[in-house]
Amino acid sequence: MVRYASQRRYDMYLCGLKNKLAVSVRRMGAVAVVAVGALLLSACADDGPPFVGIDVTGANYANAFTLTDHNGVERSLGDFAGKVVVIFFGYTQCPDVCPSSMTEMAEAKRLLGADGDRFQGLFLSVDPERDTPEIMRAYVSHFDDSFLALYTQPGALQQLAKDFKIYFKKVPGPTPTSYTMDHSAGSYVYDTTGQLRLYNRYNTGAAGLASDVKRLLAEAS
Ligand SMILES: [Cu+2]
């Protein structure tokens, strides 16, 4: 059995097979062509264009977390059932990558209009030493009131980063508290059932992210 990088690619492969089948069936006569054609349209119409983000459906990482939000509430993916969840990893003192990514996330939510209510933006700090719940609350609500910041204990972050295949590293600054953090700059996108579906690359743009979210929401309705 050939392995496919994603279920969607496998589905596309199946569609290709059906199309080849249609060509041979066409020789059988006009009635069969009409019948099979209708079947193919209904089977393949949902596929649409590929996602803007990288399809990581079925990946064996970044599948679950239990973390505390900036209100002190314990959170896991199940809390956001019915919503598309986007998790970005960063730190509040980041000068550029984090603010632009959070702005993009907030803009994507606005582009969704009424469907924005079914979008949950999450910010996970890779700098638990400085990012206190108070600081993170102010930070995420600056971008969007509905966004939640998540934090974990410094000792648990390393394992979480491993589980999520993300990278972070402290880069010393002129004083002990003025360090910066190198970190992965993409985000993970989960469908309304909490399954990891996409890796959204840094600088994808709000429109691209919004279109992927819209598509995942459409799958659910
Ligand atoms: Cu950053």
Report on the architecture of this protein.
This protein is of the alpha+beta class and 221 residues long. It folds into two domains: 7-44; 54-220, Glutaredoxin. 39% of the residues lie in helices and 19% in strands. The strands form two sheets. Strands 1-10-9-4-5-6-2-3 form an eight-stranded mixed sheet, covered by helices on one side. It has a two-stranded antiparallel ribbon with strand order 7-8. A hairpin with a 4-residue loop joins strand 2 and strand 3 (74-75). Bound molecules: copper (II) ion. The site of copper (II) ion has 6 residues, from helix 3.
Lay out the secondary structure.
Blueprint: H1 7-26, H2 30-44, E1 54-55, E2 67-69, E3 74-75, E4 84-90, H3 97-111, E5 119-125, H4 133-143, E6 148-151, H5 154-164, E7 168-171, E8 180-183, E9 187-190, E10 196-200, H6 206-220
Parallel strand pairs: 4-5, 5-6
Antiparallel strand pairs: 1-10, 2-3, 2-6, 4-9, 7-8, 9-10
Bound molecules: copper (II) ion.
What portion of residues belong to β-strands? 15-25%
Distance between the termini: 32 Å
Q: What is the total tally of β strands?
A: 10
Portion of residues within helices: 25-40%
Uncertain stretches of 5 or more adjacent residues: 1-28, 31-45
The CATH architecture of the largest domain: 3-Layer(aba) Sandwich
Task: Based on Cα principal axes, name the global outline.
Answer: globular
Secondary structural class: alpha+beta
Describe the largest sheet: 8 strands, mixed
Q: Nearest-angstrom radius of gyration? A: 21 Å
Mean pLDDT across the residues is 84
Total helical elements: 6
